[in-house]
Amino acid sequence: MARARLVRPVPEKPGPGQESVWDYPRPPRLEEFRGSITVELGGVDIAATQRGWRVLETSHPPTYYLPADSFRPGVLRATAGSSWCEWKGRASYFDLVSGRTVAPRAAWTYAAPTRGFEPIAGAVAVMAAAVDRCTVNGETVLHQPGGFYGGWITSGVTGPFKGVPGSMGW
Description:
Layout: E1 19-20, E2 29-41, E3 44-56, E4 63-66, E5 76-85, E6 89-98, E7 101-109, E8 124-126, E9 133-136, E10 139-140, E11 142-143, E12 152-153, E13 157-158
Pfam family, one: NTP_transf_9
Keywords: Transferase
Domain DUF427: 37-128
């Protein structure tokens, strides 16, 4: 039986003002973000902030973390289960609730993240594919492909992005 050959990605060349996700480090880096971030669900803005954090990891668009107090009261509903990130530690999940609209397990947090990620303790990341809309500085983001990762794609980043078919070994 022949072994599948791993196809190496060819990074897209960034244009002016863009970052290549292939220049992001592994292990990932946490950086503070100053700018507008919004999340909409059920036709309502459920979160808005002017500050947050980005986690930058090779081949991934940035994952944005918002302070928990940037979410409207009652929007975050803790749900069962957890997962483990080799870089940040144990994540717990939230359903996002807006009126009659519920996005199951659409957000997550690290209560006690590992060393280097302490600033995001209690901050909340959102799976853009599970909500109506997320924006960064007024631009509607695209969600990272594949349904597993939580990166937000803006015009400021180039790929290719992990999560597309064939990217499991990247």
